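Morning!

This is the sequence you dropped in the shared folder:
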Amino acid sequence: MAGASKTFWEIIPANRLPGDDGQILIVDREDGAEGRTVCLVPGKLLYCTEEHEFVRHLDEQDFRNARLFATAPRLRAVLTELLDWAAQSGEPDAECWEEARRVAAVLQDPGS
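The structure's back. Tokens below.
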């Protein structure tokens, strides 16, 4: 796998379930001694407790989003590998490959 040293970022905590109170962190463990938080999925704000604290509950979409973020490094690498393969195998101008190139360009451009 060319350039695919990072396969996934870590989802913390890994044992959360839909309906749980709290948030999900996506952490790059390879960035710094303690790792670096690359994303926070806060959950849905539901209510304020009697102590005037807000409560957030995680839902299925939060978990789908966390998994998508956690696999982002690998998705970028796989997309690049597929585009390289398409260029070598013929039919690199098919519509699906054009769309893949547009997505790859967005993923590579921090200003997009």
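Headline: Residues 1-5 have pLDDT under 50 and may be disordered.

More detail when I'm at my desk.
O.
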